[in-house]
Amino acid sequence: xxxxxxxxxxxxxxxxxxxxxxxxxxxxxxxxxxxxxxxxxxxxxxxxxxxxxxxxxxxxxxxxxxxxxxxxxxxxxxxxxxxxxxxxxxxx
Length: 92
Description:
Order of helices and strands: HHHH
């Protein structure tokens, strides 16, 4: 085997330690930034939530079955909420 073909492997413990160091530093910086700029983070989170909900609304508007039959949309939504609530209760 030539030097170019020789591969060196990093022990998994070193990778885990490096990941832990990185995550520790990232968490400190994230918390620090969130504490210094709470309004910005609040507005960004609100925008993200509204964008997702608006995107769902636009996708639902493309489904003719739901547009023409809002009761089907309502019943589907209630069934999904009940199913996810039951799953959450069972997993908790």
